[in-house]
């Protein structure tokens, strides 16, 4: 993912990396796990953990085992209030998922990344990388590329320049051509770019003339033939327009 590392804050970065190691699937961490993931010494691990405890962000569950503290809930609630239009998008996504019988997503750009804000899963849900709160690159996947296509040429070039590993010149040229086309068509399709065997299509959502997000449907490629893809694509375009109308009423 594209990123520009801030210099002179290695210790602060390590503390934040440890904090971000906690997740829904890994709510409890041991010192040994922290040492293994971050390649640090035992004294360093305890020093970073002590700082997080001092700030009431984690607490010790058992000897050498740590969990997030209730203080984190305040951060989560604050973050939830900034999830632009998640509440408005959810019922629209629910209708899209019901009509297509596939999983529907709403994403927005966050700095140099795409983040999923809302999801409506079908009865036969699939495992995908885009999940609420997960930060993903902007140059792979239909919805992410819709967001990247909204960048100016200069900003897009800066994003691509920061990619690690860098794209091969031919791949970068193909992507640049695709993004230019997407900017005009306002519709994107991808297959296997983020998750193997997964097909996706996406359309941009605008508010007050500004690109604020993307609506997408994802499905196993084997389950959606040519006719189904065309039908889903039409539904995604219509849903993006529906959400725009909802947001116009909100404002």
Automatic annotation (TrEMBL):
The keyword Transcription regulation applies. The keyword DNA-binding applies. GO terms for biological process: negative regulation of DNA-templated transcription. Residues 9-70 form the HTH iclR-type domain. Residues 71-249 form the IclR-ED domain. GO terms for molecular function: DNA binding; DNA-binding transcription factor activity. Gene3D superfamilies: 3.30.450.40, Winged helix-like DNA-binding domain superfamily/Winged helix DNA-binding domain. Keywords: DNA-binding, Transcription, Transcription regulation. It comes from the Bacteria. PROSITE patterns: HTH_ICLR, ICLR_ED. This is IclR family transcriptional regulator. It comes from Lacisediminihabitans profunda.
